[in-house]
Amino acid sequence: MSDIDALKNDVKKLNAKATQAKMDLHDLSEDLPTGWERIPEVARVAYEAHVALTEARRKLAAATPA
User: Fold this and answer.
1) Are 57 and 9 in contact (CB under 8 A)?
2) Structure confidence at residue 66 as a pLDDT band (50, 70, 90)
3) 14-63: what fold?
4) Count of CB atoms situated within 10 Å of the CB of 56
5) What's the whole-number average pLDDT of the chain?
6) Are 11 and 39 in contact (CB under 8 A)?
């Protein structure tokens, strides 16, 4: 597997993780005020997932020939 293929695979996995984190945050917001204690935890997971996805996309863009 080439480096670009590996980066594409990472982006695909991280995109799925970020999407799930976004949905978890959305679901939590719909259930408020129930579960309000989990806001920092769920938001942190969503934030970290999107940071990782953005970084992986940046690496893929840098590695892909123009």
Assistant:
1) no
2) confident
3) Helix Hairpins (1.10.287)
4) 20
5) 96
6) no
34 Cβ contact partners less than 8 Å away, ≥ 6 residues apart: none
The reported pTM is 0.89
What is the reported pLDDT for 42?
A: 98
Token reading at 4: 């670009």
- Residue in this structure with the two tokens 């719909």, named with its chain if needed: 30
Whether the pLDDT of residue 31 is over 90: the answer is yes
DSSP state of 1: -
* Residue whose entry in the numeric block shows the structure tokens 């969503």: 46
- Kind and range of the H or E run holding 18: helix 3-31
Q: Residue 12 and residue 16: Cα distance in Å, rounded?
A: 6
Domain limits of the chain? 14-63
